[in-house]
């Protein structure tokens, strides 16, 4: 089931003189465990979400929201990660990007192992407040754990029914050296 609001262009039209006073559309609440103590505004109605001046994030059922990460100097998209309420809170409090690892089920600070820290320049949200965009100053040679500046180092090419991948550019660093101390 889609958790977005009804498309206004497809809503039934009524004559202006017979239109009843419309109640504001309501949006699903962020699960209480995701926002508890976070200081985020409640998700009340569409107008408040789309036009208001309070951050009222929508986390998914797992308490996460996508975070697109962009280099502030170049505009290059560096990575896509996920944030929970605590990651958002820590990022805003420390000025360094924090994310939630779905595979490790743990909060982590970008660069805690590699030293390739992401310093927050700005955090934006989309119109539905269910995705954030972080513009960052990327320290170190790259954001990608396999050695590239960006996690988006390959493009799809070839047969549209079974596209292949073309690597663009060379790795920015040797991940085996950076992560050599980690156990598999």
TrEMBL record:
Ranges of compositional bias, category Basic and acidic residues: 1-10
GO cellular component, one term: cytoplasm
GO molecular function: magnesium ion binding; phosphoribosyl-AMP cyclohydrolase activity; phosphoribosyl-ATP diphosphatase activity; zinc ion binding
Pathway recorded for this protein: Amino-acid biosynthesis; L-histidine biosynthesis; L-histidine from 5-phospho-alpha-D-ribose 1-diphosphate: step 3/9; Amino-acid biosynthesis; L-histidine biosynthesis; L-histidine from 5-phospho-alpha-D-ribose 1-diphosphate: step 2/9
Chain ranges of the Phosphoribosyl-AMP cyclohydrolase domain: 79-153
Pfam families attached to this UniProt entry: PRA-CH
Residue sites binding Zn(2+) per the record: 127, 144, 151
Binding site for Mg(2+): 126, 128, 130
Region (Disordered): 1-41
EC number(s) on file: 3.5.4.19
Low complexity bias (residue ranges): 11-35
GO biological process: L-histidine biosynthetic process
Catalysis performed (reactions): 1-(5-phospho-beta-D-ribosyl)-ATP + H2O = 1-(5-phospho-beta-D-ribosyl)-5'-AMP + diphosphate + H(+); 1-(5-phospho-beta-D-ribosyl)-5'-AMP + H2O = 1-(5-phospho-beta-D-ribosyl)-5-[(5-phospho-beta-D-ribosylamino)methylideneamino]imidazole-4-carboxamide
Keywords on record: Amino-acid biosynthesis, Cytoplasm, Histidine biosynthesis, Hydrolase, Magnesium, Metal-binding, Zinc
Gene3D superfamilies hit by this protein: 4.10.80.70, Phosphoribosyl-AMP cyclohydrolase
Cofactor(s) needed for function: Mg(2+); Zn(2+)
UniProt record similarity statement: In the C-terminal section; belongs to the PRA-PH family. In the N-terminal section; belongs to the PRA-CH family.
Subunit structure, as described in the record: Homodimer.
Function: Catalyzes the hydrolysis of the adenine ring of phosphoribosyl-AMP.
Name of the protein: Phosphoribosyl-AMP cyclohydrolase
Organism: Rhodothalassium salexigens DSM 2132
